[in-house]
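User: I'm putting together a teaching handout on how multi-component assemblies are represented. Below are the sequence lines for each component of a complex, exactly as they appear in our records. Could you produce the 3D structure of the whole assembly as structure tokens, so the students can see both representations side by side? Please keep the chain order the same as the input.
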Amino acid sequence: MDLQSLYQEIILDHYKSPHHAGLRDPFEVEVHHVNPTCGDEVTLRVHVVDDVVVDISYDAEGCSISQASTSVLTDLLIGKKVDDALEIHSTFVELMQSRGKVEPDEDILEDGIAFAGVAKFPGRVKCALLGWMAWKDATARVVVDVEGSVT
Amino acid sequence: MTAVEAPSHGLLDTDRIRADFPILGRRLDGDRPLVYLDSANTSQKPRQVIDAMTAHYEQINSNVGRAVHQLGDASTQAYEVARVKIAAFINAPDASEVIFTKNSSEALNLVANTLSWAHGDHAVGAGDEIVITEMEHHSNIVPWQLLAERKDATLRWFGITDEGRLDLSQIDSVINDRTKVVSVVWVSNMLGTVTPLETIIRRAREVGALVVVDASQAVPQMPVDVAALGADLVAFTGHKMVGPTGIGVLWGRTEVLDALPPFLGGGSMIETVTMGGSTWAPLPAKFEAGTPPIVEAIGLAAAVDYLSAIGMDRIASHEHVLTAYALERMRELPGLTILGPTEAVDRGGAVSFELDGIHPHDVSQVLDSLGIAVRAGHHCAKPAHARFGVQSSTRASFYLYTTPAEVDAFIDGIHQTRRFFKVA
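Assistant: Of course. Below is the structure of the complete assembly, with chains in the same order as your input.
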């Protein structure tokens, strides 16, 4: 077991000082996701204006991996167009489901490449994806709401 | 330097016992020996259990209770002998009171479901009350929530004190004339607490409530006498007591089991079937629909033989001495908070704790890299965690093969974990 590959410094740094933490206004949708096997939880809000991810705020309780990956998520996606953010999302999910066989692209994932090691620990992949799944769920609801309000 | 001396009295001959458990000899990544501190989750199995199951498959395998051939007779005989051995192990007055189930969860669901279908004295209806505790495993919470919901009954519970004991200060109002069922854990899988069953059962008797005991963590680690206990129904599981997975036991007093309707319908549980209706087989078959876990029952009987040969009182003593030693040594760990009794008094061998600044998942991950297996999470006891304001914890649990050296390895592992996450 290569503990260092799982707990990269970048991950520990984000865990100790998470970026964009806390719940903020304004927001369109708030979701609450849990990992039923371990009890990790995240409450996450998204604020989208004109197809741009203006803010992602969250209140999370969980392990270093789930906390750090939510922090990295906000760094990567805030300020992006929703379509581009979804693209990054699928790149990250693909990396996490690769069992360590995909070489991460630092240009796309930035600090997110630190999670390549997590993919080799099947028991921890869900931790890394908790915040990401919450964001996708929230964003999908924003899009539905916006389209709903148009019709 | 260790200030606390390793215990030398009251322990089992673990060298000899460990030689019976093949898995304890295996190596993990990095050629590390396995330090298995997750026995409250599932115990390891001795050669004697594995061999008994293999021998049955190789020489006797056949269905039970229906085949008229030599193998069928031998298989039925072995299955029923297993029941007799397990009945003797818990001092059940009659072997037909031992119902084989899949696990404790199924045993508890059997009770909660049949109560929802029962007529007469045991029927649970609107306004009736069901009493559990805040320290139950989810398997002794959810079936009762379902029952309460279906029957419009009220679920009540005993809370937990700061020391991790049951708060029985309001026992006379919590258990009252409306109480139909009291279902309580004997030994908490999370806090390690041994509950004062005698007091609870006495009060339940006063109001005529049915008493169910979740003995999943009790039967593996202490002598159990269901006849003396005074409960009506007792559930436990094979895999936590050096037996196989896939088999649990519901013991019940004959009058109670006879009064309850069947749980699952199907083969073996009937007396006769017509297109117009069916009648039920006598105990225990009435509650054992379909082909039962035959080889698992035989494995559980071998487990019971194994534990009995060592002696449950000696196993309880081993567990007590080791738990006391672990609790003592854990005091040297800065930032560590034990959830549950901090003294080895009325306490089983599972110790859950919090470590400041490090999530249980991360604690167990570092320990795993050292070959130390513990459990991290909510241990299927979310309400008990919520009571202490935490979402999850790390749990080390001991059994008859655990050594003081393994407790030392665990303590060293926690020190290493703190250094790794730079909280040391």
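A couple of points students might notice: The interface with chain B takes residues 1, 3, 6-7, 12, 37-41, 61-65, 67, 121, 124, 127 of chain A (CB under 8 Å). Chain A has a mean pLDDT of 91.
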